[in-house]
Design goal:
CATH architecture: Clam
Strand content: 35-45%
Number of domains: 1
Order of helices and strands: HHEEEEEEHEEEEEE
Helix content: 10-25%
Number of helices: 3
Number of strands: 12
CATH superfamily: Lipoprotein localisation LolA/LolB/LppX
Shape: globular
CATH topology: outer membrane lipoprotein receptor (LolB), chain A
CATH class: Mainly Beta
Length: about 230
């Protein structure tokens, strides 16, 4: 072996050590860049969702909903409106006229053709759409979901957990999250085996929503009764 080669081999470990001391060789911080090869914790990814939704005051989304359970399958779609603090409106185009609305204090549920619309206080709500209530105030997703975990599929994060307070009715909530922190889809598994999926698209956070759309006005001859909204 030549003298020059031997000298290079002896110097190489010291050169590598010197390089590792440089700032640009420091380990990546997953909280700063969660979509690098160093993947973030579930809590870090939940924080990215928090930042996305805490920065908006009103939101308009299109959605597709699919329910499977008890030997049946139901496909629906419509528009979701959110306005802080505490306002939510699921306005269905299929079936036309179906409505689920939260006006801060009460949740209302109505299906066309029914003689009654049901009302329940928000603090007693146990409906599959209610997990999105965390988008209506100061979001802290890590506290909303128990047993929080994360996996990755390409550039998307899959967050899974059990909504706090809904353990008896829901075994798991799954959120597919884009790099921006926006929720692309939501999947809920009930303890009885039924499953509901929501796909969201056409997100618009520049929309100006009048508060009047969150006031429930029952159709003619429809009576509002207290009870649980249908699943």
């Amino acid at each position: 072996m030549g003298a020059a080669v031997s000298a290079w081999l002896l110097a190489a470990p010291f050169a590598a050590a010197a390089h590792q001391d440089k700032p640009d060789a420091a380990p990546l911080n997953p909280n700063e860049d969660p979509f690098t090869l160093v993947q973030p914790t579930a809590e870090a990814m939940a924080t990215r969702v928090d930042k996305h939704y805490n920065s908006v005051h009103a939101l308009e989304l299109s959605f597709v909903e699919r329910y499977t359970g008890a030997g049946m399958e139901r496909n629906e779609q419509g528009r979701l409106l959110l306005k802080k603090p505490g306002l939510m409106r699921w306005e269905y185009s299929r079936p036309h006229g179906k409505l689920f609305l939260i006006d801060k204090h009460f949740a209302y549920s109505y299906t066309p053709g029914d003689a009654q619309a049901q009302r329940i206080p928000v603090d007693k709500l146990n409906d599959l759409r209610s997990p999105l209530r965390f988008l209506l105030g100061k979001t802290n997703l890590a506290k909303e979901l128990d047993k929080l975990t994360v996996t990755y599929d390409g550039g998307m994060a899959i967050l899974r957990g059990v909504p706090v307070g809904m353990e008896k009715s829901m075994s798991q909530l799954e959120l597919t999250v884009l790099p921006t922190g926006a929720i692309l889809s939501m999947r809920m598994q009930e303890t009885g085996g039924a499953e509901t999926r929501f796909q969201f698209y056409n997100e618009n956070d520049k929309v100006d929503i009048n508060k009047d759309v969150f006031v429930f006005t029952p159709p003619a001859n429809v009576k509002v009764v207290d009870g649980l909204p249908p699943m």
